[in-house]
Design goal:
Blueprint (H helix, E strand, L loop, with lengths): L1 E6 L12 H8 L4 E6 L12 E3 L7 E3 L1 H12 L6 E11 L2 H8 L3 E5 L8 H7 L2 E4 L9 H12 L9 H5 L18 E2 L2 E2 L2 H4 L3 H19 L17 E6 L3 E2 L5 E2 L5 H13 L4 E5 L3 H15 L1 H6 L1 H7 L2 E4 L2 H12 L4 E4 L11 H11 L3 E6 L6 H6 L2 E2 L15 H13 L3
Parallel strand pairs: 1-2, 1-6, 5-6, 5-7, 10-13, 10-16, 13-14, 15-16, 15-17
Antiparallel strand pairs: 3-4, 8-9, 11-12
């Protein structure tokens, strides 16, 4: 990781770059940080780097020509850099932005002061303005340190244990679990007994549950972008229902199995970590057709020709009814699952996917996502479900005719996608 800091106050960074993790990372050659004094690129004996703002009102603005010379020196001969300007007007710093910056070959951070940088320089040379919060500091040096520190943690070797990074708050979308150290009892408060048990599985369950509770209570807004699969203590299942569904006239019907639905949904289920993809049809001939297609991709030539599709089809299972699917899950999980239904029609009592996601986390039960074929799930199926999601929507009008393959991909990504 290579970062160059341009600042009128280079003394700010002396201790930051020589102590603790950042200092060791620089000493060990894991990261490289250069500091350029903006005054070195200013003309005259006074080394003026700023001037009064046009229009009056007080305050000084950093000169565009001085900034340009400093940036040219930072980039070197033909060097390519990503220029960051810490600013109250910028995007709020987040883990996603940090990961984006860490992927760049060379990041240049330009520290503003007074009223900031001349806007002509910002608009022509700055790639991204970043804010560390809705407040104003005296300069960009403290935000620059925060940006560099957060980037450095992503460089292998900077933090001693890789798990310390991957389990941190925000890295996986959720807050980190609580941490404790000796003594086991302090001022009448005891460390949770699970952490003292020596049972690795019990410790992992406690930490997972604690991370969920802390996120739900302190930062519920984070749930929307978190993959909750690692935090669920039970299984995740997907069912594609072919009966009872609606036909074009809204009547009770049975739809036919299609290879495209099977292939695409099986791959989506495998991608997002579902334990099983269940196909519901009361017709024995249709169930046998599903098994034949699955055998084609899991045995013999098909398995060899396309191993990825083979892996997806290995989680396919056929059942005669939704009730049969639920009973199979109950036998496997020893408890009744939450049934989350989807529909393309507005329905009284349907809930937003975020609320459903929070409920799945809170109740800690296996979850079964129910998708329909034909023209949607029959009311009999919807009545059996724990909750029904509001229809997917987008665009300027009320057109809503997504294929079940597309809808399933969107829903699964909202619950189990990595940010």
């Amino acid at each position: 990781m290579h970062v160059t800091i341009i600042t009128a106050f280079p003394g700010f960074f002396a201790d930051f770059l020589s102590t603790s993790m950042i200092g060791r990372a620089i000493q060990n050659g894991l990261i490289s940080v250069d500091v350029l004094d903006l005054r070195d690129f200013a003309p005259g004996g006074y080394k003026q780097v700023d001037d009064y703002a046009f229009g009056g009102g007080g305050g000084m603005v950093l000169l565009p020509e001085v900034l340009s010379r400093a940036l040219q020196a930072a980039e070197g001969d033909g060097g390519e850099s990503f220029v960051v300007y810490p600013s109250p007007q910028g995007d709020l710093l987040s883990q996603e932005i940090v990961e984006t910056l860490a992927s760049k070959r060379h990041v240049v951070v330009i520290c503003g002061h007074y009223e900031g940088l001349d806007e002509r320089f910002v608009s022509s040379r700055v790639d991204r303005e970043i804010s560390v919060g809705d407040f104003v500091l005296t300069g960009g040096e403290i935000p620059a340190m925060a940006i560099i520190d957060s980037m450095a943690r992503l460089v292998p070797g900077v933090v001693g244990k890789e798990s310390s990074v991957t389990e941190d708050s925000f890295f996986r979308g959720m807050l980190d679990h609580s941490h404790f150290t000796r003594p086991a009892e302090w001022q009448g408060r005891e460390v949770p007994e699970e952490l003292l048990s020596g049972n690795a599985a019990a410790i992992e369950r406690w930490r997972r549950n604690d991370a969920v509770e802390r996120t739900l209570s302190r930062r519920p807004d984070l749930i929307g972008r978190a993959n909750i699969r690692p935090y669920l203590p039970a299984g995740v299942y997907v069912v594609l229902v072919h009966h009872p569904v609606l036909d074009r006239q809204g009547n009770r019907s049975t739809s036919a199995v299609t290879g495209l639905d099977l292939s695409d949904l099986a791959r989506s289920c495998r991608t997002y970590g579902a334990d099983r993809f269940l196909v519901v049809t009361p017709l024995a001939s249709q169930r046998e057709l599903v098994k034949t297609m699955a055998r084609h991709w899991t045995e013999g030539w098909g398995a060899t020709a396309n191993p990825d599709r083979s892996e997806a089809f290995r989680i396919v299972k056929t059942v005669a009814s939704l009730r049969g699917a639920v009973e199979w899950i109950e036998k496997k999980e020893k408890t009744h699952p939450l049934l989350v239904a989807t529909t393309a029609r507005e329905r009284e009592g349907s809930i937003h996917w975020l609320e459903a996601k929070r409920r799945v986390l809170r109740e800690k039960k296996p979850v079964l996502f129910v998708f329909g074929t034909g023209h949607g799930l029959h009311e009999d199926i919807l009545q059996e479900c724990t909750m029904v999601l509001r229809p997917l929507s987008g665009g300027p009008g009320d057109y809503n005719h997504l294929s079940v393959r597309t809808a399933a991909g969107v829903v699964l990504d909202r619950f189990f996608g990595w940010r």
